[in-house]
Here is the input.
Amino acid sequence: MKKASVLAFTLLSMVAGSLSLAEPAQAASAARQNFAPIVLVHGFSGWGRDEMLGYKYWGGLTDIQQDLRNYQYETYTAAVGPLSSNWERACELYAEIKGGTVDYGEAHAKKYGVQRYGRTYPGYYPQWGQVNPTTGKVNKVNLIGHSMGGQTIRTLIQLLENGSPDEIAYTPAAQLSPLFNGSKKSWVLSATSIATPHDGTTLENAVEGIVPHAQQIIGMAASLGGLIGETVYDFKLDQFGLKRYAGESFSSYSDRVYNSPIWRSTHDTAEWDLGPDGAKELNSWVKAQPDVYYFSWGTQNTFYNIFTGHQDPSITMNAFLAPNAFFMGAYTRNETGHVPITSAWYQNDGVVNTISMNGPKQGSTDSIVTYNGTPQIGKWNYMGTLSYDHGAVVGIGLPDMRGWYRNLADQVGALPLK
Here is the structure.
């Protein structure tokens, strides 16, 4: 496929990417108070543990999930649609954790012309939401989302606690997914977002939107698959009828996905949700819930150029991300009907604007506070900004982030289970 020309550089950049010299400050950990499992949720164009020839989204050449398990934290890695909307990713995440067949909703399916049902999963944690006979309390989970994964976990919590009025109105009660009836209160103890575009990313405003990054991921996966004769990347777009045909080459399949008209004709994709306008629309109905602890971490890997007034990529940034950083570090927009983009958006990590990471602001009423050692429930506790690029913070590149995630596990493990 034509996209293959960038593959070698892309792969080398991911595997041998940036090494930040700054170590992130960590919140002091208290004694462990809950044993709620941790679920790691990847961002846009991410992949599951069994894909990419074992190169981990969470850890790169290391394995954060296994390390946390060795550290006595029950941990699971989600594998939701890498290019799908947050609604569909949240529905998939629910089924992956609880078990069962993905139900995207009858009203949603009709509105966007997708199939209502998706894949069936055994469930990481089938007892989720049940009363634990030992503690007498509801079994909960701690959700950790990187990049778009932070939007996805917010969406899941919103649906769990409030349901969907559209699905309730459109679907007969006997056929309504439990996710949409609004009865799953307090199933999530905490939600942690890392480098999440809560207010969107201006990278979406680059050439042809956010999809060119899918193009590069698709191309890299196709190239690797061709080397070993197997598929290493799953787009999980079955709801759009983009399931791979029997006997279809991966090159043909990836071309068909990339050239699908869905990218030009619907808001039911990651492309819309990740832009500032789409994020504002998401923020208008996805709200912080009063019984959930919310934490947010920012990342920033650019510096102020005194000659241009722009933000340029740091020398430690992954070379693959540097062109993005240059674009975002100089981009502004002031158009009627769109979220205004000023110089306040210049700082970035190569994929997401730092201003977008502390919590939802555009179209949102959520409260964002600076963490002072005592987490405030129902509010976004902003933990600070790390000197890492977008991939390095999850270990894609040279940094070994296992110790950082152990500290993060200790932080959420110290939350009281109510």
About this structure: Residues 119 and 196 are 26 Å apart (CA to CA).
